[in-house]
UniProtKB/TrEMBL annotation:
GO terms for cellular component: cytosol. Keywords: Hydrolase. InterPro entries: Cytosol_ACT, HOTDOG_ACOT, HotDog_dom_sf, Thioestr_dom. It comes from the Bacteria. This is Acyl-CoA thioesterase. It comes from Paenibacillus apii.
Amino acid sequence: MSESSQPAAPASKYCRESRVFKTGRVFPNDVNNHQTLFGGKLMSNIDEVASISAMRHCRCNVVTASTDSVDFLSPIRPTDSFCFESFVSWTGRTSIEVFVKVIAENLYSGERTVAATSFLTFVAIGPDGRPAPVPKVVPETDEEKLVSDLAEERSEQRKVRRAASKKLAGQLITTKYWE
C-alpha cells in the first residue's frame, strides 16, 4: 500500500486498544547493593512497554519526547515478580502520553503492591520523518478516567519544564573541561 493510499487514522481510540502487559522476575544480576531491583532496569522496561502502547495507538513510529516521571513507591525484591501495565492516557495533536503502572508480587505470599508509576510522552513520526497527527484517546474504566483526568495539567507542566530545560541548555558550556 502506498503512503498516499493508506487509510486515514481513526478520530479516536479507546485506552484498552493500546494496553500492554509485561511480566518479569527479579534475578540476582538484576539487583543493586540493597538487594532490590536496579532502578535503571525498571526504567528501561517502562520505556519499552510505553513505546509499544504509543505505537499501538498511532500505528506509526514514535520517539520518546520525555520521561515525565518515574515514581519508585516500594522496592522490588528477588522474591518478587513485577508486572508492567501501560496504556495511552492522553493525546495532543502529535504527542502521546502513556501511563505505566508497575505491580510487584511476592511470589511466596501472593501479596501485590503498586511498586512504581510513570508518565512518558512520545511524538508520532510519519513516513516523511515529521511529527504526525494522532487519534484522540477515550478512557472507559474508572482507573483510565482517573489517570486521564489531570492529563491537560500534566501537558502544560511538560511545556513549562521543556522551556526551562531549553533555556538552561542554552546557557551551558559545551567545550571540553580540559581545554
